[in-house]
Each structure stands twice: as structure tokens, then as C-alpha cells.
Write a structure and sequence with these properties.
GO terms for molecular function: DNA-binding transcription factor activity; sequence-specific DNA binding. The model has no long low-confidence stretch (mean pLDDT 89). The protein is 45% helix and 20% strand. The chain is globular. The chain folds into 3 domains: 157 residues, Sandwich (Jelly Rolls); 44 residues; 57 residues, Arc Repressor Mutant, subunit A. By secondary structure, the chain is an alpha+beta fold. A hairpin with a 2-residue loop joins strand 5 and strand 6. Strands 1-2-9-4-7-10 form a 6-stranded antiparallel β-sheet. A 4-stranded antiparallel β-sheet has the order 3-8-5-6, with no helix packed on it. The longest helix is centred in the middle third of the chain and has 20 residues.
Length: 284
């Protein structure tokens, strides 16, 4: 394994980067829905699951789906796959997306066991996840929650094993009304130092998470995680300027898992390190 998101405390998906050598992989019975995306390398991959045998020429962008509970009895990689991203969607958030956002009974729906030559939406989500893995942001968990929900909905729309009746698409999304927007922004201001989810924000607005995210962006011009990111950056600046709290405490308050990740993100956003920013403000 090259990298894992285990230390990031993401609740809506697990991400792992792997390098696969030629040969047979052990049989597996995934508890979660798995999406594998080939990032570097090419190889013929033979696999067997759900009573089907598949032979795929994998190249950059090839996707393999394996629904939760489907045993893969045989997987063979003919040539080295230098880098492959594996995404695992846990059952509860996946089911919650179907029930609350799509109005679908999860017990009557399943995803196909399938290999896909290319899926631009999955590639886009993978790129966002890889960027967050490479450099943690203050609202990474909010971003990953939104990406996990969007990915779950995409799988249902595009790769359901049987036809499902979906909610009417929100082509034109009504902005969040002023009263609900005020409640949400007040909640964010009061809770900016603690961990919360898009689902928590949606509950404040009395909406489903997907509907809330679209309405919030229509009202503010930014996604929820982008809005919270700005609030947390302002918090970090304020604490650096007006308090003597240790940098590691400020990093955790701003939503980072480590001081090192906080230092990198702060320097990228502000152009200087937290230490230099504090010293400069102390001289003003």
C-alpha cells in the first residue's frame, strides 16, 4: 500500500493508493462497495465475481466496481499496475444517500459488478480525493462527505443492477432562504472550532444533505466546505494574532489532523507560515 486515508477520520469513504505486482490477488468479500481506478500503468486484469468472469485491458482511467457483499473468487493482474486508487463506500452513508437524497429503498437496489473503460465523473471525484490526500485542508472531512454522497448517487444513476425510479433532477436549484441561511451561518460561527458534517448543517436547515448543499451554493456562490474553510482560515489568523495558544492547538481548532498539515495549508493560502504570521502581527 502506498497511502491510506485512515488517519484522516473520513466518515463517508476510505481511500487507499496501491501498487499491484503481477500475479493472483487473494479472494475477497468486501463489506463496502469498492471502486478501483487505475492511475498509472496498464495491465490485463481477469476477475470473477457475482457468477461472472471478466477480462479487461486496464489503462489510465479504467474503473472496476465491486458491490458490497459480492465475493471475488479470482483476480489476476498480468502486468504491474504502478498506482491504483481504491475507494470504499461504507454501507450506512451509502444507504442514507439512497434513502434521503434519492428516495430509494436500499434493500431493493444493488450496484452492478462491472468494469468500465472510463467514467469522467469518477475520475473527477478521484482527482479531488487524491488532492486532499496529498495536502490536507481544514474542511477535508466536509469535502469528502460531499464527494462520497455524490459518488454514491452517481453509482445509483449509472450502474444500478435494475432500473430504479429516481427523484426529479434539480436542474434549477432554489437558493436557501434568508432565515435558513442565517441559522446555518450562525451554527458555523458557533461551531467553527469543532468537527461537524454536511449532514449536521443540513439538519439545521431541515433539509436533506444533497438538497442543502445545492441550495447553500445557490445562495452563497460557494459549496459548504469552501465557506467553512474561509471561516476556519479567519479563525486561525485571529488566534495567531490575539492569543498565545500553541500552534498545534490552533491547527486542531482549524480542523487539521496535524500541525505539519496546518503549516502547509496556511502557507499556501496566506503566503507565509503561521509562525511568521504571528511574529509579524506581534510587531504591528
Amino acid at each position: 500500500m502506498l497511502q491510506t486515508s485512515n488517519d484522516r477520520r473520513w466518515g463517508h469513504l476510505l481511500a487507499e493508493r496501491w501498487s499491484h505486482e503481477p500475479g493472483d490477488l487473494p479472494p475477497q468479500l468486501p463489506r463496502d462497495t469498492e471502486i478501483a481506478i487505475l492511475l498509472r500503468g496498464s495491465s490485463v486484469v481477469d476477475r470473477e465475481g457475482a457468477g461472472m468472469r471478466q477480462r479487461t485491458f486496464g489503462r489510465r482511467g479504467t474503473v472496476w466496481l465491486c458491490p458490497a457483499g459480492i465475493r471475488e473468487d479470482f483476480i489476476r493482474v498480468e502486468d504491474q499496475m504502478q498506482e491504483c486508487l481504491h475507494l470504499f463506500l461504507p454501507g450506512k452513508p451509502f444507504d442514507d444517500t439512497m434513502l434521503r437524497d434519492l428516495d430509494i429503498d436500499p434493500s431493493g437496489m444493488s450496484i452492478r459488478y462491472e468494469s468500465i473503460d472510463r467514467d469522467m465523473f469518477i475520475e473527477h471525484v478521484a482527482d479531488r480525493i487524491l488532492a486532499e490526500l496529498a495536502q490536507e485542508t481544514s474542511t477535508g472531512r466536509l469535502l469528502i462527505e460531499s464527494l462520497g454522497r455524490a459518488l454514491s448517487a452517481h453509482l445509483v444513476h449509472s450502474y444500478a443492477a435494475s432500473s430504479v425510479r429516481l427523484k426529479q433532477s434539480y436542474a434549477v436549484q432554489k437558493p436557501l432562504d434568508a432565515r435558513r441561511l442565517s441559522r446555518v451561518t450562525e451554527f458555523i460561527d458557533a461551531s467553527v472550532e469543532r468537527e461537524f458534517t454536511v449532514k449536521d448543517l443540513a439538519s439545521v436547515a431541515c433539509m436533506s444533505p444533497a438538497h442543502f448543499s445545492r441550495s447553500f451554493k445557490a445562495a452563497t456562490g460557494t459549496a459548504p466546505h469552501e465557506y467553512v474553510s474561509r471561516q476556519r482560515l479567519d479563525l486561525a489568523k485571529r488566534l495567531l494574532s490575539t492569543s498565545d495558544r500553541p500552534l498545534v492547538d490552533i491547527a486542531f481548532a482549524a480542523g487539521f489532523s496535524s500541525q505539519a498539515n496546518f503549516n502547509r495549508a496556511f502557507r499556501k493560502a496566506v503566503g507565509t507560515t503561521p509562525s511568521h504570521y504571528r511574529a509579524r502581527k506581534g510587531q504591528d
